[in-house]
Amino acid sequence: MSEALSQIPGGLRYYFGREARLRRSIEDTAMSVLDGWSYEEITTPTVDYYSLFDRAMGHSESHHAFRFTDTDGRLLALRPDVTSAVARAAATLFASSERPLRLCYAASVFRQQPRTRAEWRRELTQIGCELTGANTLAADVELLVIASEILDRLGLGEDFVITLNDVEIFNGVAANLELDASARDEMRQLIDARDAVELERFLTPHASAGDRRAFVRLTQLAGKRDTLDKARGVITNPRSVNGLDHLESLWRVIESLGLADHFEIDLGDVSRLDYYTGLTFKVYVAGAGARIGSGGRYDALTAKFGKAEPAIGFVLDLEALADLLVVRKRDLGSIRAPQREASRVSNDDPALLFQEAMNRRAEDARIRVCM
Amino acid sequence: MTDLTIAIAKGRLQAEAFELLAHAGLRVSSDALSSRRLILEDEAGCCRFIPVKPSDVPVYVEHGIADCGIVGRDVLLESEADVLQPLALEIGRCRVAVAARAGISLDGLGVVRVATKYPRIAAEHFGARGIPVELIELSGSVELAPLLGLADCIVDLVETGRTLSENGLAMLEVITESTARLIVNRASYQLKAGPISQLISSLKEKSI
Fold first, then answer.
1. How many whole angstroms separate alpha carbon A243 and alpha carbon A272?
2. Under 8 Å CB-to-CB from A170, ≥6 apart: which residues?
3. If I label B187, which of A34, A268, B105, B110 is the partner at 20 to 30 A Cα–Cα?
4. Whether the predicted pLDDT of A333 surpasses 80
5. For the whole model, what pTM was predicted?
């Protein structure tokens, strides 16, 4: 049996020409912003033990990875994320480095099956950063400000919205209900889909009418600071109130920095609760049909590698950013991806040809050798 | 109001959907509705409507080409699209049920042959009960399958139940009963929060 060599596996593609230059430009811009905030670049292994991702990301995420075996029979995977390996590095390679530890990366990640049906790609490029060793309000703010600056420098400064939530708000509500793990996840999915009707139906055997109203409200509460006030009216357990207080302090800082126009509080955003431990946020940009970035605090992650410490990070989707900027065809200012004019070099004698070529290259000219 | 693009399920639901939208202040003229135009606008010019095949509504919304959609819950359950469902509407009430030839029971079968337009819903329903199924996907007139021996039973939409009874079939079990939903693209929900919450509250007055 022979397969046509011309075929490419599903979900994978080439990038070339203007698109390739644009991707390079976006990556350079984002990484230079991160460098500006003293984040050091790290490159993690593309192939790693599957068990790393299974334990770090959780099975519901890790099982989307491409898996294969090493020569010794151990299960390997093409990395489905970078954070897992960075957390491991923080606990091992960088165990005695100064804290807070600031690391960033731009790397391909792989999924055997896309996250949603609107998502076609099986290889994605994540631009991300991790701040390890600080669980202060300042750490949360830093990540949000960096994300804003990157989008601003990409020319998307007028078009983005970052939504904020804190997992403790949902966790406090769920704990009160004493739900088992699968019921808790079912409730989480209903809130995540903002499905008030099904949520009401699901909660009827578990909660009083008053409590049901409160949880259904969770699916509808989104907006600016007033969202928190409305939430306090219906959610009163201490754990959730802690979460609300935290969002409030964060909001106050964002407001004083003049960034409130680009932020929203979204108490219905409850994805990946098994992973995050505090602040979670999602990045949306006008023109993109899905989120282009996400992040949050995951203080329980590094403990899995033997050194418990707080950590927070985010990723931006390079392809999503490139799609937006290609479609807009706008003057990208600092991230324009022009191509310099090339001068032709020709000579029948290869020695003379390349002497001329090398001379021009020494002046950093762009040349095209004629053959 | 910023432009919203709303996908509407064609067929049974379409007329009711446009009537509901008209009551909510988004009226599409009858000339436009009876035209061959693929993209319709309301009279005030603030929203665009795209009537599409029911199973395509979640596709347009998931990709963000349509900010919202009106579609039956049967389609939503089957598609498993990653969209928000913030509002149940009072139109498009439907039941998805298991039906078989009257007098037939599915007990004691090693594997149940199920003919359906809803393979995911069927698999989930029987799977949860630990019943092995052989799924036969059909596009229409699913009631024929058990009559001609292609399947032991069907999982299908049931409204009045007349088609079933006139063909000697009986409903064995209701899987789910629901009405149509307003679905919203996740990014639009955040980026066009104002117009969308306005749409939701206008529709709510006529809904559950």
1. 16
2. A188, A191, A218, A240, A267, A270, A273
3. A34
4. no
5. 0.91
CA–CA distance, A292 with B195 (Å, rounded to integer): 22
Tokens of A194: 């903002």
- CATH number of residue B153's parent domain: 3.40.190.10
- The Cα–Cα gap between A202 and A177 comes to 12
In this complex, do A117 and B81 lie within 8 Å of one another by their Cβ atoms? yes
Residue A280 CB: number of other CB atoms within 10 A? 26
Per-residue tokens: B198: 């306005």
The answer for residues whose C-beta is within 8 angstroms of residue B162's C-beta and 6 or more apart is none
Q: Same domain, yes or no, for B71 and B131?
A: no
Q: Could you list the residue range(s) of the whole structural domain that residue B42 is in?
A: 4-92+179-204
B77 at A interface, C-beta within 8 A: no
What digits encode the pLDDT tens for the residues A97-150?
999 999 999 999 999 998 888 889 999 999 999 999 999 999 999 999 999 999
- From residue A332, alpha-carbon distances to A154, A158, A168 in Å are 7, 13, 40
Question: Of B153, B157, B205, B204, nearest to B181 (Cα)?
Answer: B204
Q: B19 and B85, same structural domain?
A: yes
Greater confidence (B31 vs A329) lies with B31
What's the total number of domains in chain B? Answer: 2
Which two three-digit tokens encode residue A284? 């949306």
- The ipTM assigned to this model is 0.88
Same-domain pairing of B56 and B119: no
Closest residue in chain A to residue B68, using alpha carbons only: A289
pLDDT digits (tens, 9 = 90+) for A283-298: 999 999 999 999 999 9
Chain A residues near residue B88 by CB distance under 8 angstroms? 196-197
B146 preceded by a cis bond (ω within 30 of 0): no
Percentage of chain A lying above the pLDDT 90 cut = 72
Cβ of A193 and B85 within 8 Å? yes
